[in-house]
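Hi P.,

Sorry for the delay on this. The queue was packed all week, but I finally got your sequence through. Input first:
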Amino acid sequence: MRKILQKVFWPLLRIFETGEDAVGYQKSHRIILIILGVLFLGLSFGSAWMGNVTGEMGALIPMVVFFAVGFVALVLGIFGSDSAVCKIWRSRS
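Then the structure:
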């Protein structure tokens, strides 16, 4: 199942895949990336809910931005390689 989802998300993953060794990679980087993704998705849903309650269309912009950042962080945290995680954190030794 993981291989199928990696193929589905390949257009997004190839942006961050470098093919280089993951110098400076730590397991905590991946965990923090997943937590960050969940938090941003929560902000996205909170913004959508508040926009629905107030009827303001201005809530659409932060909802889309927070959702995009959270989605990318989750996909990279779950399906990305170690070098992709290093690239998003810009970890270099």
